[in-house]
From TrEMBL:
Record's keyword annotation contains Oxidoreductase: yes
Protein's organism: Microterricola viridarii
GO BP of this protein: anaerobic respiration
UniProt-recorded name of the protein: Succinate dehydrogenase
UniProt xrefs under Gene3D superfamilies: FAD/NAD(P)-binding domain, Fumarate reductase/succinate dehydrogenase flavoprotein-like, C-terminal domain, Succinate dehydrogenase/fumarate reductase flavoprotein, catalytic domain
Length: 656
């Protein structure tokens, strides 16, 4: 074994190199006016010239569908790619609870500034402040826009759009459509996209998976894709590429994401030179359903909106065996209300997940496997009545009943932390462009807005803001100087070379004749990550995780079995490529987590906590974004973070 692995804790200097300072392009001056100033100074493309540009958009979730629809509406020639059989199948449908907006319609003292403060503080001061101001400013337009294109938001009795609260805030700014918000927004965005397909401005490529990024003359100029039905591998070139391919939470195997969600498009771009920001910043959602069997293939998400009316508790005594309804009030510990009285059950997700994990590890877990906590609607049912609760959460209760056989109107729900959202992603500057010119990133594939912890209902918002109101401004600014240049021809060496490399990777995977299928490796990888890079981390655990990931990768390379042929529909081959990328990503995640010697947001190092057990953030040494460059030893570059309108403070959810 290498000397690097001789001790329990690996020397981080043996795993990574240190690069330089990178500039995120955050405008100087008041961050509240940065977006208006940047838009005013963007270069424009006249309407008659827009059809001369080809823009590639990969992914048709909220960010991708919106970007393709908006650029198509403006007159650009757009190629939209999805590995689904229809754009509306994208994973954005799964976000249930709502979408935030600082419209300030309720008299509860909400504002743009308060939205920014909640978002920056909620992310534990590890996001770019000016990006959060853009998110807040455009949030006002997003709600009106999505309503105009067909999203059926809930309404108050007088007709005004209804709102509710989400974790990490003390105001009501979340707009919703019962528990189907993501689905309804995705349907509306998909219809807008298909309108442009019918108009001829967007060419839609379904059942097509991106395998690689074509980089020529230092610019992103196309992609290589595989037709998942025929197996054909081909190239599409263009003047710019937008990646909106979602997050990488499925690296944990058992996550709340759809099983097809993956990191391949983003990670292949990373291998071509795009920096990857904060890969270890992974959110564990506090209201996932507990695993009921080790052979379960994924976890199920219950919306955070349930925490508005449900109270979270565990039995006061460890090892409790009585049914929940038989445990008297005096023997129940409403631990979030006790520990964080100002926010109670609506504490941010990272705080709530760690608190739940503490209770479970202390032996107070509930359910057959003692791996959950209760979410109880008894008091709200008594206060509001069954009809009101069913109107708010009826479809969520139906989902829970279908999954567990228990009716939450009669017995408390059982919930537990589950791998969910990736705050990390491809690094982008203020203009949403990656470190490779011409490569833009939107939605969860990027890193912007959320820092080390995402506030609930900011995911749908960030995807919509990127797709409808950021990329349609930023992409034309990049394209304007390229007027008159043609897209790369099919016989360009960068195109033929990247095609050949992609085919070689696919052929090598298809030729694998070992004894284990890709899902077996993926499941084992997830177990490693949950144990060593999960809700809480230690230097020793992360070091062991890196060792185990490297051993698993070596086994994957020698004992992978891929049945079938590459010439046609082959889901085993698809999964093999995605698991290969997950293995590489997992190691980078652990290196990033081992490197960052602090606790912040969802990155909780047990060595770095305050006397009361809360996260000990280290602004003096770690107030920057880690942006990793691919290599045999990854190189960490730093983007320093500056805060002018929301000054860093210790996060406090115990008092107002």
């Amino acid at each position: 074994m290498s000397a690097v692995f001789d001790s329990a804790v690996i020397n981080i200097d043996a795993l990574r190199d240190i690069g330089g300072i990178i500039d995120g392009g955050q405008p100087t001056g008041d961050p509240a006016g940065a977006w208006a100033d940047r838009k005013l100074n963007y270069k424009l493309v006249s309407p008659l010239n827009r059809r001369k540009f080809d823009v590639i958009v990969v992914g048709t979730g909220l960010a991708g569908a919106a970007c393709a629809a908006a650029l198509g509406e403006l007159g650009y020639n757009v190629h939209a790619f999805t590995f689904h059989d229809a754009p509306r199948r994208a994973h954005s449908v799964a976000a249930q609870g709502g979408i935030n907006a600082a419209r300030g319609r309720k008299v509860d003292n909400d504002s743009l500034a308060r939205f920014v403060k909640d978002t920056v503080k909620g992310g534990d001061f590890r996001a770019r402040e000016a990006d959060c101001w853009r998110l807040a400013e455009e949030s006002v337009r997003v709600i009106d826009h999505m309503e105009a294109v067909g999203a059926p938001f809930a309404r108050e009795y007088g007709g005004q759009l209804a709102t509710r609260s989400f974790g990490g805030v003390q105001v009501s700014r979340t707009y919703y459509t019962r528990g189907q918000t993501g689905q309804q927004l995705q349907v509306a965005a998909s219809q807008a996209l298909l309108r442009q397909v019918a108009a001829g401005t967007v060419t839609l490529h379904t059942r097509s998976e991106m395998l690689d990024l074509i980089v020529a003359d230092g610019r992103a100029q196309g992609i290589v894709v595989r037709d998942l039905t025929t197996g054909d591998i081909w190239a599409q070139t263009g003047h710019a590429v937008v990646l909106a391919t979602g997050g990488y939470g499925n690296v944990f195997f058992k996550s709340t994401l759809a099983k097809n969600s993956n990191v391949t498009a983003a990670f292949r771009a990373h291998k071509r030179g795009a920096l990857f920001a904060s890969p270890s910043f992974i959110q564990f959602h506090p209201t996932a359903l507990p695993l009921s069997s080790e052979w379960q293939s994924k976890t199920i998400l219950m919306s955070e909106s349930l925490r508005n009316d449900g109270r979270i508790w565990v039995p006061s005594a460890p090892g409790e065996t009585r049914p929940a309804n038989d445990i008297p009030e005096a023997e129940r510990d409403y631990y979030l209300e006790r520990r964080y009285p100002a926010f109670g059950n609506l504490t941010p997700r990272d705080v709530a997940s760690r608190a739940a994990r503490d209770e479970i590890d202390a032996g107070r877990g509930v359910g057959p496997l003692k791996n959950g906590v209760y979410l109880d609607f008894r008091d709200s049912l008594a206060r509001l009545g069954r009809k009101v609760i069913e109107e708010r959460y009826g479809n969520l209760f139906e989902m829970y009943t279908d999954a567990t056989g228990e009716n939450p109107l009669e017995v408390p729900m059982r919930i537990a932390p589950g791998a969910h959202f990736s705050m990390g992603g491809l690094w982008t500057d203020y203009d949403a462009m990656a470190s490779i010119p011409g490569l833009f990133v939107g939605g969860e594939a990027g890193w912007a807005y959320h820092g080390a912890n995402r506030l609930g209902a900011n995911s749908l918002l960030s995807a919509c803001v990127d797709g409808w109101f950021t990329l349609p401004y930023a992409v034309p600014n990049y394209l304007a100087p390229l007027l008159g240049q043609q897209a790369l021809p099919a016989d360009h060496p960068a195109v033929t070379g990247t095609l050949a490399e992609a085919r070689a990777v696919v052929d090598a995977l298809a030729a694998s004749s070992g004894t284990q299928g890709p899902d077996r490796f993926h499941r084992r990888l997830g177990e490693i990550l949950y144990t060593h890079c999960g809700v809480s981390r230690t230097a020793e655990g992360l070091s062991e995780g890196i060792r185990l990931i490297r051993e698993l990768r070596a086994e994957f390379q020698t004992d992978l079995r891929v049945a079938g042929s590459p010439d046609g529909f082959n889901q085993e081959l698809e999964r093999a490529g995605r698991v290969a990328d997950f293995l590489d990503l997992a190691e980078l995640m652990c290196i990033d987590a081992l490197d960052r010697e602090e606790s912040c947001g969802a990155h909780f190092r047990l060595e770095h906590q305050l006397s009361d057990g809360e996260a000990a953030r280290d602004d003096a040494h770690w107030s920057f974004v880690s942006a990793w460059q691919h290599g045999a030893r990854p190189t960490r570059h730093n983007e320093p973070l500056h805060f002018d309108s929301v000054l860093p403070e210790t996060r406090n959810y115990k008092s107002s």
